[in-house]
């Protein structure tokens, strides 16, 4: 990993943190907003070999574009461009694996088929645990309507292997498609 300057400092420069993206470095915790802002401007789809290797989509539009065609919208306020991002940024300094998916309109039986075969996601609400959970969310608001084109899923990605979770969701989306 490249280090900044000639002083022998172990601190990474901001530019190096963008080129050699590692969300686990202490410097990333001190300046995550600045690092992600640089990534959004210079490298909206970042890759790192750290932590087993992964891609990081840093702009809301990129995340939405990467979503499956069955998904109308991803709800995750930590993503710039999400309607709740300004409030999230004001009130929080970090995020977790809890997010929502608004599906394109599909019959209820198709959602049931998607969920019935999940093997790595349990069905239930997450209260901050480590396991991956998924549940249909029937959002009812009294102040103003909740704009959802189709069914809403509440998802918590836990500590299981990301490849296993992705494969589980892909099989679920295949069952959803087959049931429509």
Task: Reconstruct the topology from this structure.
Elements: H1 14-19, H2 26-30, H3 32-42, E1 45-48, E2 54-57, H4 60-66, E3 71-75, H5 85-91, E4 98-103, H6 108-116, E5 122-123, E6 133-137, E7 152-156, H7 162-178
Parallel strand pairs: 5-6
Antiparallel strand pairs: 1-2, 3-4, 4-7, 6-7
In short:
The chain is α+β, with helices and mostly antiparallel strands. Helices cover 34% and strands 17% of the residues.
Descriptive overview:
The structure is a single chain. This protein is an alpha+beta fold and 180 residues long. The chain folds into 2 domains: 1-58, no CATH class; 68-178, Aspartate Aminotransferase, domain 1 (Alpha-Beta Complex). The chain has helices at residues 14-19, 26-30, 32-42, 60-66, 85-91, 108-116, 162-178, and strands at residues 45-48, 54-57, 71-75, 98-103, 122-123, 133-137, 152-156. The chain has a 5-stranded mixed β-sheet with strand order 3-4-7-6-5, with no helix packed on it. A two-stranded antiparallel ribbon has the order 1-2. Mean pLDDT is 76; it is low at 1-18.
List key phrases describing it.
2 domains; 34% helix; 180 residues; disordered N terminus; Aspartate Aminotransferase, domain 1; two-stranded antiparallel ribbon; alpha+beta; 7 helices; 7 strands; 5-stranded mixed beta sheet
Structural class: alpha+beta
So how many helices?
7
Overall pLDDT score: 76
Order of helices and strands: HHHEEHEHEHEEEH
Name of the CATH homologous superfamily of the largest domain = Aspartate Aminotransferase, domain 1
What is the global morphology?
Answer: globular
Number of strands: 7
Strand order, sheet with most strands = 3-4-7-6-5
CATH fold assignment of the largest domain: Aspartate Aminotransferase, domain 1
What fraction strand?
A: 15-25%
| Uncertain parts | 1-18
The major β-sheet equals: 5 strands, mixed
Spatial separation of the terminal alpha carbons: 49 Å
What helical percentage do the residues reach? Answer: 25-40%
Rg, Cα atoms, Å: 18 Å
The level-1 CATH class of the largest domain: Alpha Beta
Can you tell me the CATH architecture of the largest domain? Alpha-Beta Complex
* Count of spatially separate domains: 2
